[in-house]
């Protein structure tokens, strides 16, 4: 299992000297040269993989200036640097074999908001949605709309001059940049904004690098006007990367930001921006039009644009079919109804917005009438999404297009390398027809979505990049599409920047390319900033643009992984880098460990990247990761593990240790399994990794304590007072923390569960009893499946669940307690888990034969039956319902007055893996005459025993503070705050000293009041 780091060479030593000097000079941020950190940043959302020498995370502007100053010293002129933001680029823009300068971790402050003048000042690491969340109370927003808006940084948007939906109305990022602050090589700051002639002359007369930059760019603007006019296309998206056409604005002012926007970090480190912001339209309506063919959707552009909507988005059938299988579909299905006898193979989403609702509705009415009278294409029908929330839900589906395309079945997946072409909208249909013909002639399938109004359609050819024959198609397809875009008056790089496609700039710019080189030389004379992208300095002889097939492809490394291993670890290796897990929103469930640490290793993408590399290295060393990992001799195995563990303590270099640290920081909340569009399932491959890792290294004692909990607790619970006294004693707590690795262990409930059962006539479910029941008795019976946590640690909740069911008139049977096995699975005791699951499932399936519903209580424990059990038992798992799933079928179909409101914090596993179950809770509450408001919330930070583990306790506390703490502080006083996860309620009690009710307790309270009992 040992995975040595790459051997040192001259380049490695050179970079080590630079990093050592950087630390000596007082760099305050982090410097990471470990293999794991480098591997995570070796990929983005492109087809490429470049391993950097190191990653640095500047703490402040002074750190950035120090990096730029040091690298400009003659001895470090061969050191190259590349700035990085969200890392979601599709063309390898921020990939480098030098040093990555991550500006997102610390430089993410919103510095100033001027509501009256409608501008903001932010640091480059601020995420677009983060900014808009702060602006929303002021009625303002930052306009350029991206599908990656919940993780794209402002700095990344500026560096790629990003645009997306609504660009025909709102323009590109450049159109909203008022001023930039950029750290140049040498450490000098360049503060750029639109300048009049007098101030431009003043800047150009400076004797430093800033003066050189202004003199160079002004000379180009003054002497290359006609050439710029002839070469630059007349497109809404215009050109990304040294935009010479807008050096002079319409009013004559000179604006250096036109070349900085879209420069992809090749000119300097943009650390701060002043941006103009716009008023949020008060009303919006989305017209969703369905078509029998995708080409019909494209050809409809002219008719759709006639009444000048805000935007027109298009989606093809492949994306639509994938969306239907995704978590997002339950919120948008009503807007895309099935049409009898016809199949929808394309849709267009046409948005209208405005502040006057009556005027907006009239515009939409006129638009629909226009469509009725226009017969240029066949339309199957349309629906309306009215209001910002409805529009947001539909756009959430459209935004997931990139990720969804990565979830097609099979080894061939849609690949981004020619996917952001832009042509004049009137040429789009013919261009796409020829584009499709090009791919059809190569026998390739593809997925498409995009912005019809801007002439941009994202086309992703489906290729298996592990196959050298298919990977070799990257060059001919890229060449052909580059030529095709020029034929139709467009660009190969219409939206996502040039990156590793910069080689096509030579042919595209022709006589104007030396001007780009001159700009590069003025900013970066020795080609140290993101070299090989956009342009090379004029006087650096060996500098050249990197070609699309000169950088290693991810597929080249993937083909080193054994095919059986690849197939078996699909939930890890298919991560395509779209970065949905980097979601900034603390009130979104995915991914809590990333949000708390801001360390990309502790994200689904990071963990998937590490496991993918780990699998490759294991294969290279002949390790069988699919075999039986238990030792033939327990004694001999322990000796080997002890020896290896001692070697680890003395600094043994094994990449497996870095992977282990990443896995140990995972909460196993399974939000990634539900929310990741590619369905990267970290808890699944985490458990498998832990099993193999601990076949070589000793387990921490806490793993055995956690794994055995379900087996030991029935015996320990016979002496609850003694157990609680021991767990509360300071010496025991100290021993647990220091030697076991656990903190503040939960205490046993003192309630007598047997008395509760006797009070409500609860019986243990046995074949003898159930076989004697009549059909009517079975219809009015339920079997409760116990879990260790609510049964022994939170007995009052289990007791009130029993009371609620009894009051509803049902006979209650208890399935005999048997360990569920979830703690074993989470800790990687997979052999033991399979045995526990088989034993438990056998008993539950026997009870299930009598036709009486099996119902669980805790969502995390209950969902194990339909997820992990289904895998290890080949689909032969018992069917155990969540409480709300059973209640909604057991209660009458009758709604009552819903004036009393409860605020609900769902368990994150339930919210993300069974989203429809949250709606069922709403229906149940309605039938009790109550209203349920589901609060937007992230993870509570507990997730089973995670928050009780010494190594994770601080992170658990941080996760709680980000989302749950403010919600608990806001809603707890009302007495109407509820949560259905055991771990969630225990976390609130642990962190805030507050008791939060289970939804069933709220329902029981309603019954006890007598307000609903007589009506049900």
From TrEMBL:
EC number: 1.1.99.39
PROSITE patterns: 4FE4S_FER_1 (PS00198), FAD_PCMH (PS51387)
Gene3D superfamilies per UniProt: 3.30.465.10, 3.30.70.2740
Alphabetically ordered keywords of this record: 4Fe-4S, FAD, Flavoprotein, Iron, Iron-sulfur, Metal-binding, Oxidoreductase
Annotated FAD-binding PCMH-type domain residues: 48-280
Pfam (any one): FAD_binding_4
Cofactors demanded by this protein: FAD
Highest taxon, organism lineage: Bacteria
MF GO annotations: (R)-2-hydroxyglutarate dehydrogenase activity; 4 iron, 4 sulfur cluster binding; D-lactate dehydrogenase (cytochrome) activity; D-lactate dehydrogenase (NAD+) activity; FAD binding; metal ion binding
Gene Ontology annotations of biological process type: lactate catabolic process
Homology family: In the N-terminal section; belongs to the FAD-binding oxidoreductase/transferase type 4 family.
The protein, known as: D-2-hydroxyglutarate dehydrogenase
Organism name: Pseudomonas atacamensis
Upper lineage: Bacteria, Pseudomonadati, Pseudomonadota, Gammaproteobacteria, Pseudomonadales
């Amino acid at each position: 299992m040992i995975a040595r780091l790459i051997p040192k060479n001259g380049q490695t030593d050179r970079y080590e000297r630079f990093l050592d000097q950087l630390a000596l000079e007082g760099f305050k941020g982090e410097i990471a040269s470990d293999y794991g950190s480098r591997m995570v940043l070796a990929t983005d959302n492109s087809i490429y993989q470049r391993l950097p020498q190191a990653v640095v995370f500047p703490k402040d502007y002074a750190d950035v200036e120090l990096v730029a100053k040091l690298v400009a010293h003659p001895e470090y002129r061969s050191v190259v640097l590349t700035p990085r933001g969200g890392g979601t680029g599709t063309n390898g823009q921020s990939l480098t074999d030098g040093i990555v300068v991550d500006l997102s971790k610390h430089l993410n402050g919103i510095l100033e908001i001027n509501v009256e003048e409608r501008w903001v000042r932010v640091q480059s690491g601020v995420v677009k949605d983060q900014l808009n969340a702060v602006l929303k109370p002021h009625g303002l927003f930052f306009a350029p709309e991206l599908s990656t808006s919940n993780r794209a940084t402002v700095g990344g948007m500026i560096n790629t001059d990003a645009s997306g939906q609504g660009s025909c109305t709102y323009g590109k990022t450049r159109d909203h940049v008022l001023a930039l602050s950029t750290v140049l090589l040498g450490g000098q700051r360049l503060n750029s904004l639109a300048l009049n002639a007098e101030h431009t002359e003043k800047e150009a007369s400076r004797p430093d690098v800033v003066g050189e930059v202004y003199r160079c760019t002004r000379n180009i603007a003054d002497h290359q006007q006609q050439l710029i006019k002839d070469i630059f296309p007349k497109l809404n998206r215009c050109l990304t990367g040294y935009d010479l056409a807008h050096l002079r604005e319409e009013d004559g002012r000179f604006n250096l930001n036109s070349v900085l926007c879209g420069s992809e970090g090749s000119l300097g480190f943009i650390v701060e921006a002043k941006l103009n912001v716009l008023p949020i339209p008060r009303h919006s309506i989305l017209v969703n039009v369905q078509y029998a063919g995708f080409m019909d959707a494209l050809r409809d552009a002219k008719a759709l644009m006639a009444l000048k909507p805000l935007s027109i988005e298009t989606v093809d059938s492949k994306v639509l079919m994938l969306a239907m299988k995704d978590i997002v579909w339950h919120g948008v299905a009503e807007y895309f109804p099935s049409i009898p006898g016809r199949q929808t193979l394309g849709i267009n989403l046409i948005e209208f917005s405005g502040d006057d609702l009556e005027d907006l509705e009239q515009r939409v009415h006129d638009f629909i009438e226009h469509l009725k009278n226009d017969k240029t294409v066949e339309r199957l029908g349309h629906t309306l999404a009215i209001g910002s929330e409805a529009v947001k839900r539909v756009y959430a589906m459209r935004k997931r297009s990139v990720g969804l395309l990565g979830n097609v079945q099979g080894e061939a997946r849609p690949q981004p390398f020619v996917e952001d072409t832009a042509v004049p909208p009137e040429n789009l249909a013919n261009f796409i027809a020829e584009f499709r013909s090009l791919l059809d002639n190569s026998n390739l399938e593809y997925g498409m979505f995009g912005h019809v109004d801007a002439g941009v359609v994202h086309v992703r050819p489906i290729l298996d990049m592990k196959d050298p024959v298919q990977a070799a198609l990257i060059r001919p397809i890229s060449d052909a599409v580059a030529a095709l875009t020029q034929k139709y008056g467009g660009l190969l790089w219409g939206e996502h920047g040039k990156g590793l496609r910069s080689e096509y700039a030579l042919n595209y710019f022709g006589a104007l390319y030396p001007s780009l080189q001159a700009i590069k030389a003025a900013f970066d004379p020795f080609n140290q900033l993101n070299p090989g992208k956009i342009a090379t300095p004029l006087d650096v002889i060996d500098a050249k643009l990197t070609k699309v097939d000169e950088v290693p492809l991810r597929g080249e490394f993937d083909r080193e992984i054994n095919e059986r291993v690849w197939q078996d670890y699909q939930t890890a290796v298919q991560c395509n880098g779209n970065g949905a897990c980097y979601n900034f929103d603390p009130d979104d469930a995915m991914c809590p460990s990333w949000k708390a640490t801001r360390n990309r290793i502790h994200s689904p993408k990071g963990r998937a990247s590490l496991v993918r590399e780990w699998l490759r290295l294991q294969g290279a060393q002949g390790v069988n990761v699919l075999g039986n990992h238990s030792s033939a001799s327990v004694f001999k195995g322990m000796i080997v593990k002890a020896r290896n563990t001692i070697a680890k303590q003395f600094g043994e270099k094994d990449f497996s240790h870095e992977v282990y640290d990443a896995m140990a920081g995972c909460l196993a909340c399974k939000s990634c399994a539900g929310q990741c569009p590619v369905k990267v399932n970290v808890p699944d491959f985490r458990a498998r990794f832990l099993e193999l890792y601990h076949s070589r290294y000793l387990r921490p004692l806490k793993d055995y304590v956690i794994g055995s909990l379900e087996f030991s607790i029935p015996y320990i619970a016979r002496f609850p007072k003694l157990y609680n006294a021991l767990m509360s004693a300071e010496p025991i707590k100290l021993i647990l923390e220091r030697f076991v690795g656990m903190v503040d262990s939960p205490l046993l409930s003192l309630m007598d569960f047997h008395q509760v059962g006797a009070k409500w006539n609860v019986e243990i479910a046995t074949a003898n009893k159930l076989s004697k029941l009549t059909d009517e008795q079975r219809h009015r019976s339920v079997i409760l499946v116990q879990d260790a946590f609510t049964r022994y640690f939170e007995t009052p909740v289990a007791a009130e669940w029993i009371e609620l069911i009894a009051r509803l008139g049902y006979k209650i049977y208890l399935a005999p307690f048997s360990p569920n096995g979830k703690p074993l699975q989470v800790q990687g005791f997979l052999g033991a888990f399979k045995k526990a699951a088989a034993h438990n499932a056998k008993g539950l399936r026997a009870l299930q034969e009598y036709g009486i519903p099996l119902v669980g209580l805790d969502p995390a424990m209950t969902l194990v039956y339909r997820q992990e059990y289904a895998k290890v038992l080949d689909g032969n798992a018992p069917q155990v319902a969540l409480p709300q799933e059973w209640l909604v079928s057991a209660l009458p179909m009758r709604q009552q007055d819903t004036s009393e409101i409860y605020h609900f914090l769902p368990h994150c596993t339930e919210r993300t893996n069974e989203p429809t179950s949250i709606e069922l809770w709403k229906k149940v509450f309605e039938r009790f005459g109550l209203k349920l408001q589901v609060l937007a919330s992230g993870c509570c930070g507990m997730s089973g025993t995670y928050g009780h583990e010494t190594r994770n306790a601080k992170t658990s506390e941080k996760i709680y503070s980000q989302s749950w703490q403010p919600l608990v502080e806001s809603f707890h006083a009302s007495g109407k705050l509820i949560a259905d996860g055991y771990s969630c309620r225990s976390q609130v009690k642990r962190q805030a000293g507050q008791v939060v009710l289970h939804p069933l307790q709220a329902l029981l309270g309603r019954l006890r009041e007598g307000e609903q009992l007589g009506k049900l």
